Amino acid sequence: MEPYAYGFATEVDRTTRFWVYFLAQGKFFSLFTLLFGVGFVLFLDRIGRRETGLRALDVYARRLLWLFLIGVAHAYLIWDGDILFHYAVCGCFLFPFRSFRLRGLVFALVVLAALVSWNAYERTARVDAQFDAYVEAQAVLEADRSEEQTAAVARWERRTERGEAHEGPIDVPRPTYGASIVTSYNALAIHTGQVLHRGLLFRTLIMMLLGMLLYRLGVFQDVRVLRGYWPITLALLVVGLALSYLRYYQWTYAYFEPVRDVRMGVLIALNREVLALAYVLLLNGLYQRFLRSLRFNPVSDAGRLALTNYISQSVLCGLLFYGYGLGWHGTFARHELLYVVATIWALQLAASWLWCRRFRYGPLEWAWRRLTYGSFERQSVAAKSAPANTEA
Cα(284)–Cα(271) distance, rounded to whole angstroms? Predict the structure, then answer.
């Protein structure tokens, strides 16, 4: 997260960092979260045609349980930045919203957005209060400062200290696979009961509920059901880009100057979510207009293997950058890493297309499905074959 570390010293890397954060960083987490909400409604609609009541809830609960366990295994064994276990827990909050009408979903979204904005307001206000305390302490001679004033000066100077680009050799993380597991264990707290990523609950629910809302509106079937679809999409895109620019220009070129204006803090609080929503609407509209009828569509194939691609990307990057693999960590500048990204994307698009020519599900999608339905079906068969209990 340090903007001055690992190749940030040159102008081209500074520019690369800005554009990556401006257009991509955090937006695709939000986009994927929104699609999780869509998948939630799709899954419940499909299972609801076959099962009713508690049986449908049972299958849904099993699906989330196995997603949680897959995420935990991914986090501890491959990459500690996993999001699946977080999704699984947040998915438990979604079930009551299935019966909400559109107005209810909108109201819930407004409440959650207000909470995120209020937290941003309080966070920015604390930063501003720290600056005020620093200015007040600076007005006092150093020899006459109280302990609290001395701490206020030191705290603000640490916060605004300009970093320097790393020089010299860089230690490659996770030299062995055993050390990698130990590192993940120390970085995670799932085994202590902390099963949500800190600070992401409200943001995650916002995007999941937005996915449910958009699916209920029918825009993923036909954009024409929403009057003014394209003007709304373009307006959100402009607003999202503007908010993202405000956030990440400061983040890149003035990282040592914390945001102290509470109005700015609130304004940029949901920049990732707004731009991700615009991306979804834009890509959905373009897909319906140009790509839906194409026979050769590797992007759709990659989407069918979303879980497999997500996990395999962690495996690939671990083998490339960690010490137990090729140990490439720290050997590329920021702009050079874009070539690695493009190569992995191309490989996954090609692999997804080839896999879908022969198989209906991806390997991990198939396993997740078998774990969800297999155990449920075995239980159902056992219940049907068991003798009836005639006791009172």
Answer: 20
Q: Which of the residues in the chain have pLDDT under 50? A: 379-381, 383, 388-392
Burial 86-110 (b: 16+ CB within 10 A, else e): bbbbbbeebeebeebeeeebeebbe
- Residue 7's pLDDT is 58
Amino acid at 192: T
Helix/strand/coil (H, E, C) string of the chain?
A: CCCCCCCCCCHHHHHHHHHHHHHCCCHHHHHHHHHHHHHHHHHHHHHHHHCCHHHHHHHHHHHHHHHHHHHHHHHHHCCCCCCHHHHHHHHHHHHHHHHCCHHHHHHHHHHHHHHHHHHHHHHHHHHHHHHHHHHHHHCCCHHHCCHHHHHHHHHHHHHCCCCCCCCCCCCCCCCCHHHHHHHHHHHCCHHHCCCCCCCCHHHHHHHHHHHHHHHHHCCCCCHHHCCCHHHHHHHHHHHHHHHHHHHHHHHHHCCCCCCCCHHHHHHCCCHHHHHHHHHHHHHHHHHHHHHCCCCCCHHHHHHHCHHHHHHHHHHHHHHHHCCCCCCCCCCCCHHHHHHHHHHHHHHHHHHHHHHHCCCCCCHHHHHHHHHHHHHHHHHHHHHHHCCCCCCC
**CA 305, 310, 314, 320 torsion: positive or negative?**
positive
